[in-house]
């Protein structure tokens, strides 16, 4: 514990606390931020006794002590969330491990190929909206998803199940986001703007499925 010694009086003059103007209450008392309450109280008592002859010094010591105690009380009432610990717990959970185990990083060529396909579909949907909606592009996106998954996994059954499941999930999630989360976008106008944005969200999710599902 870094506590300054100075005696009570020097030539009949009170000894002044050398850290009287230090702003950090922990540094003012000469203790670490991990100090226990017993250590905080011990530092306060020692310094008050050491500089009892100088009231401003005692006031500075008491003020630092009070600030630390109030902060400790606040921290107990409002515990901080350890994000790193939460992330570790999430990674260790069986559900997260199961989900992450269903994905793998493919070669760069696969990523580029699938990205180009869905970017083209997105551009066609966004730039050339029709009164009927992007029905054709959406159908093509489903076919493309099944094709790309089959091309990687070489399994017709898994390609169909993954493709159909991903499509249903992506469309439902896109619809939910459009209804509950995403506000109307001024860039997309027309009677089918809802379907256009939903389709773009769906393409993004289908690209993830086409590229990373295993």
UniProtKB/TrEMBL annotation:
Keyword 4Fe-4S appears in the UniProt entry: no
InterPro entries: CPP1-like
UniProt cross-references to Pfam families, sorted A to Z: CPP1-like
Record field: transmembrane: 110-128, 134-150, 159-182, 194-213
Keyword check for Transmembrane helix: yes
Entry GO CC: chloroplast membrane
Keyword annotations of the record: Membrane, Transmembrane, Transmembrane helix
PANTHER family named among the record's database cross-references: DNAJ (DUF3353), PTHR33372
Name recorded for this polypeptide: Uncharacterized protein
Origin species: Salix udensis
